[in-house]
Amino acid sequence: MDLPRPRRVTDVDALKALAHPLRVSLLDHLLALGPRTASECAEAVGSSASNCSWHLRQLAKAGFVERAEAGDGRERPWRATSVGYDVGAFDDDPEVRAQQDALLALGINEENRLVQRFVDRQHDLPREWLDAAAMHSYAVTVTPEELTGLLGRIDDLLRPYIVPVRQDAPEGALPVHVGLRAFPR
Fold first, then answer.
1. Which residues of the chain fall short of a pLDDT of 70?
2. Between 3.40.630.30, 3.40.50.720, 3.40.50.300, 1.10.10.10, what CATH number should domain 7-133 receive?
């Protein structure tokens, strides 16, 4: 099965458009939950609807989001234009590398925000979700080629379940954050 891949972002202008804390949060929210209005996004990311609307328009100019159809004719929701994004290999161009570094730092901050939100709200979750949740850390000994292969296999396992791809989620399924970092110690 050939599943959609994340958008590879290597253009410095697209990286600049994305490298903003609120824009990273907005795009991650749309990727995790599907189409949402600026008001719905604002509540989720802790900002105002007008501020979110402005930043969503900036993301749209860079091709990361677009307007989705609304069934009721009221405010139209926004949706992500791809199933995710990645910044590719670290670039040799200092300007591109600076934007990649900024975006990676924002991604780490967003992941930490999500982990903290989980920790803060864990008491509100049903026991089955607490039992299923996990935060593992592994130290592995691999070559660069082995690491590339391992990460590829992990991606192949997860890709059918990512929110923009999965159409057959059973009742009781919820969006779940899975974060993965792999780098030499």
1. 1, 71-73
2. 1.10.10.10
